[in-house]
# Entry
Amino acid sequence: MHSLTLFAIRFYQRFISPYKGFSCAYRYHTGHASCSVLGFRAIRRYGVFDGFLVLRKRLYLCGVSHRRYSPPKVRPHRKQRGDCDIGADLPCDAGCKMPNLKSCPMFEALNCADACSCDWPSRDKKDTQNEAEIHLPPKCESNASINASSS
# Structure
């Protein structure tokens, strides 16, 4: 499992990452190692499960830095079909001719209104209020500028 995971990370670094068109946001904004490099090191050092815990924290910080520093995406306005704009008491598009879900205990809470409702969960951006307090290190200076300033 250990060598298979390390092989998968190396495969990603060599064959996928150079061609995807963007780099790790944490690496770009802080100058530290990328998420895949950190994941490889953590899994090699701590094992698969503990390494994934380290990688999970880094991936969260990478997402925070992406949401904090990347310019917002402008999405074109798409026209809606109009069904959900009329009102909340719309009939089900499926005609409510669904099988009797009460026969299955796993689906007894579902009914036609739940399955065909226009009230889907919000797909907006993640809650960024808590992310404002998360510390991200400033961009690292290169070793050449550190050595030049110390002499």
About this structure: Residues 108-120 have pLDDT under 50 and may be disordered. Residues 48-69 form the longest helix (22 residues). Helices lie at 2-16, 25-30, 35-46, 48-69, 83-86, 112-115, 143-150. The two ends are 48 Å apart (CA to CA).
